Amino acid sequence: MEPFEIHILGCGSALPATRHNASSQVIKIGNKQFMIDCGEGTQLQLRRGHIHFSFINHIFISHLHGDHCFGLIGLISTFGLLGRTAPLHIYADVMLEKIMKPQVEFYCKDLKYPLFFHNIDATKHAVIYEDNTITVETLPLKHRIPCCGFLFKEKLKRRHLLGDVANFYGIPAYMRQAIKDGADFTTQSGEVIPNSRLTRNADPSRSYAYCSDTLPCPANNEYIKEVDLLYHEATFAESEKERAKLTFHSTARQAADIAKEAYAKRLVIGHYSSRYEDEELLLQEAKEVFPNTQCANEGEVFHI
Fold this sequence. Notes:
By secondary structure, the protein is α/β, with parallel strands linked by helices. Helix content is 26%, strand content 27%.
């Protein structure tokens, strides 16, 4: 099975802290790499995690608060210094292009690679990226400014062809993809070999949902139902529930409620307020509702 990995580069919130970096993640699916958010310090975290810059071709920005995008102009500049030629695609609110273009023209005027901005509507659930193996969908969130999460989903996979059986029946190479797609095979003598004897079940399709920054959004549960891994912000403990509401954030318990209601398989919490010396209180509050909860930390990799 190909890798499906979530690399945590930063899981802190808006105020600088010594223990956590601003929000950023890299999602590795097979040989592809995607970035979600790009707060300050992201480049250093990429270096520390031995993540190759050049493999990142698509960056998804949840919203335009600085702790989620202040690292972007530096990363764009570094790509230029590294001699990048491959296109870079950035998906974000329409305002990001207006904000970034003057910066790019001033700091990165001689870029040798194409830079594309894709405007997304944070109020709607939609597919914003698709290739032959995955889709990326927006998840409308509730924050002080337009904000959306992202759902990465593998497409249905082909069945596995049994090599020894295929060789026994002499199945030619040009027919093997069709058989992986479910076709039967007819031998030269006219015998029909059912697909069930030629193949085994495909690997299950996997999924990952990113929800930060937001009040609880139960409306998204239909989209993230039974998601393999849910990353949900848990900025505050339950004792700060009113402050969470005022600032349009979630408590750890509320994040766990969402995971439980969506029948998620695993929950990872992050985007911690700098007021907490450690995340043990947040973790315990979430586990009371959803036991299969873990805390995000810089440098950690979650495998799906």
